[in-house]
What does this fold into?
Amino acid sequence: MTADRPRETRPPKVWAAGLPGITHALGPALRGMGPLRSARLLLAMNQRDGFDCMSCAWPDPDRRKTAEFCENGAKAVTWEATPLTVPREFWSEHPLTDLAARSERWLGQQGRLVEPVHKPAGSDRYEPIGWDEAFAILADRLNGLDSPDQASFYTSGRASNEAAFVYQLFVRAFGTNNLPDCSNMCHESTGAALGETLGVGKATITYDDFRRTDLVVIMGQNPGSNHPRMLTALEEAKRNGASIVAVNPLPEAGLMRYKNPQTVRGLAGRGTELADQFLQIRLGGDMALLQALSKRVLDAEAAAPGTVLDHGFLAAHTSGLAELTAHLADLDEEAVLAATGLTSAEIDELAERYLRADRVIVTWAMGLTQHTQAVPTIREIVNLLLLRGHVGRPGAGASPIRGHSNVQGDRTMGIWERMPEPFLDALEAEFGFGVPRAHGVDAVGTIEGMAAGRIKALVALGGNLVAAISDTGAAEDALRRTDLTVQISTKLNRSHAVVGREALILPTLGRTEIDRQATGEQLVSVEDTVCAVHASRGKVEPVGPVLLSEVAIVTRTARAVLGARPGGAGPVDWAAMERDYDVIRDHVARVVPGFDDYNAKVRRDGGFLLPHGPRDSRTFPTSDGRAHLTVNELAPVECPPGRLLLQTIRSHDQFNTTVYRADDRYRGVKGGRAVVLVHPDDLAELGLADGATVDVHGEYHDGVDRVLRGQRVVAYPTARGCAAAYFPEANVLVPLGATAETSRTPVSKAVVVRLEPA
Ligand SMILES: Nc1nc2c(c(=O)[nH]1)N[C@H]1C(S)=C(S)[C@@H](COP(=O)(O)OP(=O)(O)OC[C@H]3O[C@@H](n4cnc5c(=O)[nH]c(N)nc54)[C@H](O)[C@@H]3O)O[C@H]1N2
Ligand SMILES: Nc1nc2c(c(=O)[nH]1)N[C@H]1C(S)=C(S)[C@@H](COP(=O)(O)OP(=O)(O)OC[C@H]3O[C@@H](n4cnc5c(=O)[nH]c(N)nc54)[C@H](O)[C@@H]3O)O[C@H]1N2
Ligand SMILES: [Mo]
It folds into this structure.
């Protein structure tokens, strides 16, 4: 996978959306799908009887507009709903070696996958086959393994609740908990930190809280590109008097100013100033900043006892205040300044804002979760919020912003290699088979298992594991060592080109398409980042006549695989679930807490909110029923002299490993992705010129030379000592062994690198 160097680079933009956002949204849609299909789809996006946008997990407001979508949502729909399909000749014309030499962008541009294909062992090409044959191959190979634990079953976060539930059910009936998912590489650190401290690993706010808050602190997140509809909520917060603080090594356009395309003022005027304060933090410096903030809060309390902390809340609902106070008393301000790159005055200013605010929300995404100390960093967010009782109260709370549109729902449905015992007990009681209890492997564990020969088969419900996971070289070698890889996908990507000895591609319906089963049109459901569950109904005809839904593929796989075993298919009625998704939801209602009466509730206008103890009633389902203030030891990220700390980011024109175009409008990069963004003063120190071509070498203690070649250096206003390059190309630099403590999420935001002139 190589990327082109850009034709042009310009200073980054300081505002996001507005008219260019609309034209950029509609242009590709009209070209890609034609006016009728475009109108039908774009107007149905995020509407009550429409489908859920697959671009991110941002929630829908109660008061929806006619056009409740953003530029990047429109790109995602256009990409999926293209009428272009991969023709039958494609497979004979393009051997695997050819596919492996193509870019992600080229692979995605070939159109939708419309028939199952099989690459036999020893062959270098895929060949079209029938569905029955595909399921028979799956049954033979999976049942031929020595143990079910030799297979791993990945999920990407676009799968619906219904697909995810039947998938985990099949995998556990097959006999393993090897259920890695994209969350392992994404918000796993959030789940770990919030689960431990609050008892629930999800946001403690609802959409409306943005309307009622006094202060939003946005840490490690780029909403202008990745959650554009969040800008509308921030604008509204601002109008209601809230202040906004952005903590980021990059001055991201969407954090600075927003031109709302749905208002005249946004189209024509200067838009709304968003961030009242911008803290340009060093990569990995957030934990130090958060400790420094909590220390200032505790110092203020010491200076005026009884007036600063929420003593009633702390006494009734939390533990650990004395330990935290003692620990932070020794906090070394010099160490904080070194780790953050900030001044004491900047930290004082944020502390004052925090102390002035009655209601505070902290939001975050990958800039926090993909660091070695991601879990303790998020625990420090919880500390800061708990000190003044900002949990379980209107306008206040912890707000991780999820990525994939149903990544949170998939986890709720049981996609996790370590589901808690009560879930497994409920599954066993509902279906009457012995559910395996040993924990399975996560995403990194899956690659490690393949490399060691322990894992011989991979089945993937969506996604692009080999490109999304760290250490591309090692990951590709590991994949190629397996006996079988199976991808259930809408479009081609790298994971179809780098495969096991034998490979299958099973094409599936996308979320935009009408899903017809024996009992008629089906709806599916998804959960957004604030725990709201709602229905999604496809709107256009499927792009091919033999496409199956994800639910149909999974239930038929289950029937084929389990049915071929000596004991037969077992107690689960898979066919009934395929015929009518209400049957799946009835099972979910009995297995998963909060889903009682699922079928009725999901059909209600706007869906329903899942119960959440900390948010709803300050009930904390932790070991002792209290929220935990925790003591966390700072371990600053080390970067030797002459080296930079590199983060891997998304451009404005991609969705994860899917590259729509080679531009990054807000950051001023045009016509190429092979860039490394570096502070001008760092360039001067390194003796490099803006526009120079360099090889980027990763430095890690295992001595392996990981290199990203031929990058164009772009002088950019990032924090000093910190560089940035685009994911997925830059994944060659992220070592597989570099993972976050506890969550094992790859450390994609802090790679020590050396730039060498190419
Ligand atoms: N259009 C579009 N939408 C998407 C996606 C997409 O690829 N394209 N992906 C989806 C998915 S799966 C996800 S998870 C989300 C990702 O959404 P984001 O988390 O916004 O995505 P990243 O591009 O990884 O951006 C990380 C941000 O954190 C900052 N950052 C990096 N390191 C640090 C740090 O140490 N401290 C602080 N304070 N900031 C830091 C970066 O400068 C950057 O602004 O978006 C979702 N939505
Ligand atoms: N270096 C670095 N690595 C990262 C990150 C980073 O910031 N830096 N971010 C991480 C994050 S946050 C995430 S979430 C992961 C993403 O990892 P994944 O979720 O595995 O990757 P995606 O690129 O989102 O997967 C896209 C593919 O999904 C398939 N697809 C799309 N829609 C559907 C559908 O409806 N059904 C099915 N079955 N398939 C579909 C298509 O074939 C498409 O090519 O990457 C992680 N990797
Ligand atoms: Mo993600």
User: Anything to note?
Assistant: The pocket of MGD (ligand 1) is lined by residues 55-56, 72, 186, 219-222, 225-227, 247-250, 252, 281, 283-284, 286, 365-367, 371, 403-404, 647, 649-650, 654-656, 749 (CB under 6 Å). The first strand starts at residue 8 and ends at 9. The chain has a mean pLDDT of 94.
